Amino acid sequence: MRTNESSEMYLESILVLSRKQSGVRSIDVAHETGYSKPSVSRAMGLLRQRGMITFSETGEIRLTDDGMKLASKILERHETLTAALVSLGVPQDRAQEDACRIEHVISDESMDCIRAAMYHKK
Known about the structure:
Blueprint: H1 5-20, H2 26-33, H3 37-49, E1 53-55, E2 61-63, H4 65-87, H5 92-102, H6 108-120
Antiparallel strand pairs: 1-2
Helix pairs in contact: 1-2, 1-4, 2-3, 4-5, 4-6
């Protein structure tokens, strides 16, 4: 399934929030991302239609298996790219911001090479 950067960012935010707290709601995603509640609500509806999330009876957002797979992939890319940039001397804040942009467009092949350089040559 093709996703866009926005969908990936929402899924990543849901995963990050779910690791920090129990019960993620749309308002939590809005606070985490800085997007308006209506924008988040619309995005959550689209993600639900695409089978990436579900809602519990109490309104909590849960990642489906497909949603978790993609969110985990994006978060791992973010963490690896941040670490790579920091290891090159980029300040942490800048590395995080740049990794957030790069993680959505970098090819799997390039990510594999970065992972190999970061973790297998130590």
